[in-house]
Amino acid sequence: MNAENQGCSERLVTAAYVRQGAQGRRAHELRLRALLEQGKCPEDGWDESTIELFLHELAIMDSNNFLGNCGVGEREGRVVSGLVARRHYRLIHGIGRSGDISAVQPKAAGSSLLNKLTNSVVLDIIKLAGVRTVASCFVVPMATGMSLTLCFLTLRHKRPKAKYIIWPRIDQKSCFKSMITAGFEPVVIENALEGDELRTDLEAVEAKIKALGAENILCVHSTTSCFAPRVPDRLEELAVICANYGIPHIVNNAYGVQSSKCMHLIQQGARVGRIDAFVQSLDKNFMVPVGGAIIAGFNESFIQEISKMYPGRASASPSLDVLITLLSLGTSGYKKLLKERKEMFSYLSSELKKLADNHNERLLDTPHNPISLAMSLKNLDESNDAAVTQLGSMLFTRQVSGARVVPRGSVQTVNNYTFKGFMSHANDYPCAYLNAASAIGIKKQDVDIFLKRLDKCLKTFRKEANQEKSINEISDSNTATEQLEN
C-alpha cells in the first residue's frame, strides 16, 4: 500500500492503527529490498507470508496479470485452469526469450526478475558450499543429463573437428547418454582398483589423449558425486592434464553441492588447471521437484554461450521452486542441512559397519567417497546366485528406497555400448555389494529403520541357508546309510 492509499485508509480506520499496519508491511518490504540490492540468499529464512507477498509483487509485473491488458499474440500467458494458475503463482510467461534462456522478456518483467534473482541467489549458495571463485551460473529447466548435453553442444562450435569425449567410467546411464545425444563418441576409461576404491586411471586418460590427438577430443567428462566403491575423480590431476593439452573439462557434479569435499575438488581443480563448467541437480541438492539443474563455471562468457545455446523460452518452475526453497531456508538453514547430512554420514557408516560385522560381511573402505557407502554381500553371493538381486527386491517391498544391490557379472548394453559388470563401475569388481547414501535431508530415523529392515532380510537368508544345509546333511546321511546297507 502506497502513501496515498494509506492516507485514504486513515479516514476509515484510526490513523494509529493504519500506521502500525503499514510498519508491519514495511518489515516485509525491507527484506525484499535487501534481496534486490544484494542479490544474495538471506542469512535467516523468510516466513511464507513474505515469500508469497514477494511472488505476488512479481506476478503483477507480468502483462498477463495487467488489469487492462489486451493480448492478440500467440503467447499471451493464458491459463484456463485457476488451479494451474495458482500452482505457478500466476507467473505464466516462463523465462528467457527465443534466443537466450537468460534474456529479459519485455512483457514479463516479473518473471525476468525472478530468473535473474534465482541465478544470483544460487550463485551465492554455490560459493557458500565451497566453490568461492565461481564466476557465473544459471538454472536450466532440464535435469543433469540434458544439461550436460547442452554443455557438449556448446563446445561443438568451439571444437568443430572433435568427435570424442574422454569419460572415466561411471555406471550411470544419463551421463553416458548425454554424450551420445550430443552426437559424440564416448571413450570409456576403466577405473583403477586401489584397495576397495575405484579411482581415476590418470595414465590411461593421458595415453588415450595422445593416441586420439588433443584436437579430436571435445572434452574430458569427469564425475564427483557417485556410488561407492567408485569415488570422485581425481579432479585436480585431470584439470592439469586438460590445461596442458588445451582440452575443455566438464564436470558432472550431480549431487555434489551438498558435499564440501566434492565442492573443494572443483575449486582446487579450477585453481591448478582447467574446468570449463560443472553441472549439478536441483532436486538432489536442494530438495525440490525433479526437472532442473544448475550450470556453473569460472568464465562468465562461456556460461553465457551455454545459456544462448538453449533453444526457445523455458519453464520457470525449477527457478521458482529453488528460489522459494532457498528464501525459506536462508543460508543458516541450508548450512544446517549440510551439517546434519555430514553427521548422518558418520552415523550411517558406523552403524552399517556393525551390521556388516554381525553378518560376516564388511563395510568397504572408501574414504574418498563423502556421500555413498558400500557393504559387501560376498557370503550371500556365494550361497545363492539369485540371492543378491532377491535382497534388493525384499528391501524395496519393505519400503526401503534408494538402496542399491549390485551383483557380480551383470552385463548391460547402452546405446550399442556393452558394459561388463554394469552398476559396479568395473568389469570385474571383487564382490557383490549393497549401496546406501547419506544425502541431504536424511534423518536418523531413516538410517535406523533401514538398518533394522536390512538386518531382518539378511537373517531371513541366513535361516534359509541353514535349513537348506540341514536338509542336504540329512540327505547325505541317508544316502551313506543306504550304501552301507547295500
UniProtKB/TrEMBL annotation:
Give the multimer and partner information: Homotetramer formed by a catalytic dimer and a non-catalytic dimer serving as a binding platform that orients tRNASec for catalysis. Each tetramer binds the CCA ends of two tRNAs which point to the active sites of the catalytic dimer.
**Phylogenetic classification of the source organism:** Eukaryota, Metazoa, Chordata, Craniata, Vertebrata
Originating species: Lepidothrix coronata (blue-crowned manakin)
Family that this chain belongs to: Belongs to the SepSecS family.
Q: What is its EC number?
A: 2.9.1.2
Spell out the subcellular localization from the entry.
Cytoplasm
Q: Where does pyridoxal 5'-phosphate bind?
A: 75
Where substrate binds, per the record, is at 97-98, 105, 313
The record's listing under InterPro entries reads: PyrdxlP-dep_Trfase, PyrdxlP-dep_Trfase_major, Sec-tRNA_Se_transferase, SepSecS/SepCysS
The answer to whether keyword Flavoprotein applies is: no
Main localization is: cytoplasm
List site positions: May act as a substrate filter by repelling compounds with a negatively charged alpha-carboxylate: 74
Pathway(s) where this gene product acts: Aminoacyl-tRNA biosynthesis; selenocysteinyl-tRNA(Sec) biosynthesis; selenocysteinyl-tRNA(Sec) from L-seryl-tRNA(Sec) (archaeal/eukaryal route): step 2/2
Protein name in UniProt: O-phosphoseryl-tRNA(Sec) selenium transferase
Arranged from A to Z, the UniProt key words for this protein are:
Cytoplasm, Protein biosynthesis, Pyridoxal phosphate, RNA-binding, Selenium, Transferase, tRNA-binding
Top class in the EC scheme = transferase
Cofactors named for this entry: pyridoxal 5'-phosphate
Q: Which GO terms describe its cellular component?
A: cytoplasm
What biological process terms from GO does the record include?
A: conversion of seryl-tRNAsec to selenocys-tRNAsec; selenocysteine incorporation
A single GO molecular function term of this UniProt record = tRNA binding
Where is the signal peptide, in residue numbers? Answer: none
Q: Name one Pfam family in it.
A: SepSecS
Catalytic reaction list: O-phospho-L-seryl-tRNA(Sec) + selenophosphate + H2O = L-selenocysteinyl-tRNA(Sec) + 2 phosphate
Q: Which residues carry this modification: N6-(pyridoxal phosphate)lysine?
A: 284
